[in-house]
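Working notes for the structural subgroup meeting. M.R. asked for a predicted model of this chain before we commit to crystallization trials. I am recording the input and output together here so anyone reviewing the notebook later can reproduce the run.

Input as submitted:
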Amino acid sequence: MKICRFDDHRLGVVLEAEGEVADVSAVLDSLPAVRYPLPRHDPLIANLNLLRARIEEALPKAKRTALSSVKLLSPVANPGKIMAAPVNYLKHLQEVQKDPSLHHNNSIAHIQKAGIFLKATSSLIGAGEAICIAYPDRRTDPEIELVIVIGRKAKDVKAADALGFVAGYAIGLDVTIRGPEDRSLRKSPDTYTVLGPWLVTADELGDPGALSFALKVNDEAKPRQASNTNDLIIDVPALIEWASSFYTLHPGDLLFTGTPEGVSQIKAGDQLEAQIERIGRMRVAVRAAA
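Returned structure, recorded in token form:
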């Protein structure tokens, strides 16, 4: 199932073959009420398995809207944390080490030494929103990544069991200001984390270990980035094991898995097209900050 959030926080099921979204927002009334202190998890993702039957029951009579006419929001509204794996593709590690405009004399190590880093949840947007260039005098790059959406609470999970803790997957753009500061600062301005175009549930996607993906800018014929998740240095199950050894993972937490070689600068006015096999594609605008 492909689940999206759109327009004024509506919940939809994407019928990609028909080019439509079925509005199943009424099932949100089944979510448990919450009071302060609020939960650390995303309520929709935490209850997704319980809602599936209601969603499927609502689908035949759900109002349908053309997919092209809706504004796609982040499919996860309230992640407790956004985790990201740096330099998790060998060729990207090599390009960063060779190019001073990328590393700015920062210490660049392979992922086993660099560790997972965190991004501000306030940086999160969906495909129908726009990346706003925070510092136009500095280089800003988008990085395409497969994103894992955690489905249930997890701590000290073993890789062999890790996929059982996944709610689904999405396309991510880890937008980055190049410079000498810590990664978490340079990657956390507003709009610098894009998630979309929807969440593909784990049962529909299957094995995340061999997905082709690509990122194009404007109408360029050749993708700036193109790779396959089988080139990950640390694969999806091992990343979940590693992350859960440091953090308690909660439903709705996001884990960006890393980007391949080919990172390059974007500017206001650009249009990005990101595609991952068996997930879909999303177009994201780039604008100047207001």
